[in-house]
Amino acid sequence: MITEGFKKAQLRLTGKTIIQERHIEEAIRDIRVSLLEADVEFHVVKGFTERVKAKALGEIVQTRVSHAGKKLKVGPQEHFIKICYDELVSLMGPVDTSLDLGNREVNAVMMVGLQGSGKTTTTAKLARHLKEKGKKPMMVAADVYRPAAIEQLKVLGKKLDIPVFSAPAKTPPEICRDSLEAAQFKGCDVVIFDTAGRTIVDEALMRELEDIKTAARPENILLVVDAMIGQESVNIAREFDRRLDMTGFILTKLDGDARGGAALSIKEVTKKPIKFVGMGEALDRLEEFRPDGLASRILG
Amino acid sequence: FAGGTDIDEDVMSRLEETLVGTDIGVRTAYRLFEGIREKLGSASMKDASSVMRVIRQEIAAILKKRQSWLELPEGVRPFVIMVTGVNGSGKTTTIAKIARRFIGDGRSVIIASGDTFRAAAVEQLEHWAGKVGADFVKAHEGADPSAVAYDALEAAIARKKDVLIIDTAGRLHTKENLMEELKKTKRVLAKKLPGAPHSILLVLDATIGQNAIEQTRQFHKALGVTGIVLTKLDGSSKGGVIVGIADEFDIPIHYIGIGEGMDDLEAFDADAFVDALFL
Ligand SMILES: Nc1nc2c(ncn2[C@@H]2O[C@H](COP(=O)(O)OP(=O)(O)OP(=O)(O)O)[C@@H](O)[C@H]2O)c(=O)[nH]1
Ligand SMILES: Nc1nc2c(ncn2[C@@H]2O[C@H](COP(=O)(O)OP(=O)(O)OP(=O)(O)O)[C@@H](O)[C@H]2O)c(=O)[nH]1
Ligand SMILES: [Mg+2]
Ligand SMILES: [Mg+2]
Questions:
Q1: With contact defined as beta carbons under 8 Å apart, do A111 and A286 qualify?
Q2: A257: nearest CA partner in chain B
Q3: What are the tens digits of pLDDT across the range A267-290?
């Protein structure tokens, strides 16, 4: 668990008034193990620990931290934790949970990701969220492969009283393109494409996503990622980003006990913002992303 | 990894990078390094390829202990399989694949939709049952999963089916009430047919990192998992977390999932897995 490592690092520095380089080295090692165990990607961990080490060596002894104007003198261990926390928060910010929903009559959001990551559920959650904000969303069943995928979206649409567009005889690029017109006809102002899950090694399916983008020109392309994902998070995010130039990503299943190290990895490598987090199976369990929330989850 | 000066620092960090990258996990990687330290003299620990060769052997040995195919014992009918795992891991699709295998071997299979919660879960499984040629016990949305399991077992017995496979809704192991629901289903089955469920499968997604260990721990603690299926190995993830799982838990690894089609299932082979791990 990441929290264990951070506590261990903290304990190493407790009670010391003069921090030597080797104390920092040891504390950094604990943090490194912790971050790797939290599924932060190997090279992202390397970069993070190097930055923290450099800051720590420069600042740790006799430091003051100001809290709401009052200057407090803190021990090196609290200062070390603060350096880690600040570095995590700055890594995962700045906060940008906005969606581009302004410049066309019908704006589009395209949901992409690996199999089972939570795209269909998140499509419904996002539609509900937008409806609450006064938009008129329409969900688009662009997964023509998975058994009962269209049915799944229709059931969710019925539950939320949100229209679902489907045209199973057509190809996903055609379906997404045609949905824009259907939405306009129905008076909807935003469409959300629920695409099929796919792996990055499937050339044909990755190409299909590019074709959907070409055909429907979505303003927003969101990568939906399972918070428990492992070391491949970076390769996966990079590949989706390389092909589609995504506008942001969503981390799902954060209601579990996975530390969500993927959030750091993906953000660090793509620089794209985390827009939302999924916090449960229910359709109201979607929250706008807050870096301090995730940082303190990681720091414990 | 800092312990010994007998392994070259650079070799060490490169090996660690390779191992960690497969999701083996830093702690399991450390254990492997310590384990082979005795096997190799300090001289050969400086050479990356010989260290790697021994690590591969070590991993294969760990996995071979758990390599164990799901076989139907004589005289057990219906053989009851309960399929569990976290959300989206591949349970429903894996059931289709397993059913297809048994049907291909000449067995009669009945599938029950124990997921009465998620949108169109029943329809999804119903589609698969039709495709593979299995009987299907359909549940109403919102029906009690234990009641569905009970009815399915009754049907399996009445229709003299060889195998009953019960699908359950995905759930995170942190949700106590949902884990209790699984325990209740297990109890209900055991009461109806002593010995049932004969197999409790945990479906793990190979793209998941270290959380898979905790998933295994909690599902095993709650139910006594009798077999693991590792899915989505056709993706870019290596599923290395299974090594730590195999090392810690005495749970057979039956199958791997290598695609979305009903034939995309293979019996778990430790040597093939290790080869693919370091490709
Ligand atoms: N606990 C929890 N479960 C979630 C969350 N988001 C989705 N799920 C569940 O994860 C499973 C998969 O969700 P789907 O929406 O079907 O995933 P998908 O990406 O559309 O799957 P494919 O279309 O097959 O690629 C379902 O059981 C969902 O209920 C979340 O934030 N928390
Ligand atoms: N590439 C690949 N995809 C798989 C594999 N197994 C399952 N999937 C896909 O993963 C997604 C989720 O599969 P499901 O069978 O619905 O998973 P589940 O565990 O039943 O999901 P919930 O019931 O929602 O918890 C689907 O898109 C499947 O096609 C596999 O071995 N390889
Ligand atoms: Mg889907
Ligand atoms: Mg299912």
A1: no
A2: B174
A3: 999 999 999 999 999 999 999 998
Handedness of CA A3, B19, A23, A89 (dihedral sign): negative
- Distance between CA B174 and CA B267 in Å, rounded? 30
Closest CA to B6 of B56, B45, B48, B35: B45
With beta carbons less than 8 A apart as the criterion, state whether A12 and A27 touch.
yes
CB-based contact (8 Å) between B89 and chain A? Answer: yes
Contact A266, A233 (CB under 8 A): yes
Contact indicator for B138, B144 with CB cutoff of 8 Å: no
> CB-based contact (8 Å) between B236 and chain A?
yes
Ligand 1, closest atom to CA B169?
A: 27
A28-54 burial, b for 16+ CB within 10 Å, e for fewer?
bbbbbbbbbbbbbbbebbeebbeebbe
pLDDT at B98: 98
Res B246: pLDDT = 98
The residue whose CA has the least distance to atom 13 of ligand 2 is: B90
Can you tell me which residue has the tokens 């609450």? A132
Atom 14 of ligand 1 has which residue's CA nearest to it?
A118
Q: Which of A25, A144, A232, A239 to mutate to test the interface with B (most CBs of B within 10 A)?
A: A232
Centre of ligand 3 to C-alpha A110, Å, is: 13
Strand ranges, E, within chain B: 79-84, 109-114, 135-137, 163-168, 199-205, 227-231, 253-257, 265-267
Asked if B236 and A151 come within 8 Å (Cβ–Cβ), the reply is no
Instruction: Give just the sign of the alpha carbon dihedral B264, B59, B87, A231.
Output: negative
Q: Which residue has the tokens 């202990």?
A: B65
A44-58, A192-206, B75-89: least confident range: A44-58
B208–A228: do the CB atoms touch at under 8 Å? Answer: yes
Judged by CB atoms closer than 8 Å, whether chains meet at B211 and A257 is answered as yes
Return all residues near B9 (Cβ < 8 A) that are at least 6 apart.
Answer: none
Q: What pLDDT band is residue A295 in, cutting at 50, 70 and 90?
A: confident
pLDDT bin (cut points 50, 70, 90) of residue A74 is low
Q: Under an 8 A CB cutoff, do B88 and A115 touch?
A: yes
| CB-based burial, B7-31: b 16+ in 10 Å, e otherwise | beeebbeebbebbbbbbbbbebbeb
The answer to whether the CB of A276 falls within 8 A of the CB of A287 is yes
pLDDT by residue (tens digit) across B149-158? 999 999 999 9
Give the C-alpha separation, B76 to B79, whole Å: 6
Tokens of B206: 């190979």
